[in-house]
Amino acid sequence: MRKLVLIISILGVLLSVLLSGIYFHFSYFEPDTVSYLFQAKLFAEGKLSVPAPPEHGFSSSPHINILNGKWYSKYPFGNALMLTFGVLINAPWLIPALATGGALFLLYLLVREMDGNSVALIAVVLGLISPATLGMGATWFSEPVSRFFLALYLFALIKTLNGVRLSGFKTGIGYPLLSGFALGYAFNTRPLSAVVFGVVGAGLALYQLVKARTEAQRFRPLITRLGVFLMPFFIMVGVCMAWNAHFTGDAFMFTHTVAQPSDKIGFGKRTEGYEPNLENAFNFTPAWAIERTWKHILPCISFNALGWGGYHHRLLTGESGYSFFGFIIAFVPLLFPWCLALLPFFSNGKRRSDFTEERILRNRYNWLCLALIVGNLLLYAFFYFEGSTWGFTPVNARYYTETTLLAFIPLVARGMFIVYENIRQRKPLIVAASVVLILLSVNTVWSYVRIGRVYQNWSPVYQKLPPMVAERDIHNAVIFVAEHRGAPIGDYPFQNLQEADIVYFKLGPAPRWKLTNSDWQQVYAQYFTGRAAYLYVQRENSLTRLSPDL
């Protein structure tokens, strides 16, 4: 069984790499991924930051902070640090792929602990075909790294609570150390997701403590193991606070919000920008947080979990343009994963785990998974931005990527196993279920094609401009980028401005992003005399040679 799961995990790596090449040509494709790569390149040079540039026009992403004389990514360091290993071998795309394969293998180990080999195998197969798994594994977002460490955390936590010793450790501290470190690293990668998993894990630990409180031979060792768990976790939290203090001067002020204070959780006026116009900012309300959950988030999670159905961000708003028949075809399959995920809570029967031992289906691990899903939905309900309201790709449901793989898919796998146990003696139902699965598998393939079209046309500035520069063999040049808040990563600041071969500069006016300089000739005369000069306009996807002397 482990060999089979290892093959599935390797397939997860290979398919993530393949999709990264097909979708993104092994590169970044939007401002977040640019920010992560920028910080990874700094780490590869042994730096936490570089001196701030003279203008914001030099910065390739709005998610890179220029503050207090420092230039660095606004995001926690966890994902960038992992990407650094890829940068060192000129293959940053390999890191999320490896993290995806590792998460699949850990998913099998985790679900096997919770529900046995049979359900674990179903879960890892579903995880392999899931767009939320591979569709994110092809990107340089922080979610692939985060879900790997959260999978490691959950697996090691359950081993810790069950009193299992890690091979190579004579005492029972191996799994607690591993679990605490994994959660701490996840906190330094995606803090909000780590908070959800940490709180739910704490609830499971408390449940185990209550059960063991009358048995000293179980209670005391459990307290000791949980104490060991806290040591690496608090060390990693301390590293996070040191990171914050270094850049913001306050251990409790995160780099995410220090330069963009209106980009935060909570209700009220919310927007991105270094100098946002709050009068025209989005007014985030509890009513909208509730409405978007059922109208956008839940169907988007379902669609990205298995690729079934045809989610559109206007599907439940009456503005999708679908006919009644088209709406039914798109919407009904979106219900299937949720029905399967909820089925274990309504089944009173028993089944044979691995066909050898009896376990009650309605067990604490079902509630663990449900708590992770609900906790994830509740916490991100306080964040104003929600990608599922304007798109359908895994990126648009990325805030729920970790719980999709580690909680939603295990519940779906249990639901599928219950259905199988109830119909396996009825041949007509087996045939009908097989036909449905074949049709849904075709639907999944179509969903990957549909997602790919969007991925491949996400941002011309990032996806089309660098190849144009390479194809035209441009050197010793400045590329001015008009009408956009982002630009590709050039050779500066990784080489000094005078020696850098290709430098990108964003033109204004865009006061929100502190892009105040819109006269390219003035900028050229100030910073780039002696270089070739080009102007890129995204809406025309045109790269034009300029004549600085005119």
Provide an overview of this structure.
Helices cover 56% and strands 8% of the residues. The chain has 550 residues and is α+β, with helices and mostly antiparallel strands. The chain has a four-stranded mixed β-sheet, with helices on one face. It has a three-stranded antiparallel β-sheet with strand order 1-3-2. The longest helix has 33 residues, at 216-248.
Number of strands: 11
Mean pLDDT score, rounded? 93
Structural Rg: 25 Å
Please trace the helix and strand order, writing H or E for each element. HHEEEHHHHHHHHHEEHHEEHHHHHEEHEE
Structural class: alpha+beta
Figure out the total of helices.
19
> Which strand order does the major sheet show?
9-8-10-11
Low-confidence runs: 350-361
Shape: globular
- Largest beta sheet, briefly? 4 strands, mixed
Beta-strand share of residues: 5-15%
The helix content, as a percent range, equals 55-70%
How is this structure best summarized?
With 550 residues, this protein is α+β, with helices and mostly antiparallel strands. Helix content is 56%, strand content 8%.
List strands and helices in order, with pairings.
Blueprint: H1 2-24, H2 31-44, E1 50-51, E2 64-67, E3 70-73, H3 78-88, H4 94-115, H5 117-129, H6 131-137, H7 143-161, H8 174-187, H9 191-212, H10 216-248, H11 255-258, E4 268-270, E5 282-284, H12 286-306, H13 324-342, E6 350-353, E7 357-360, H14 364-380, H15 401-423, H16 427-455, H17 460-463, H18 465-471, E8 477-482, E9 502-506, H19 520-527, E10 532-537, E11 542-545
Parallel strand pairs: 8-9, 8-10
Antiparallel strand pairs: 1-3, 2-3, 4-5, 6-7, 10-11
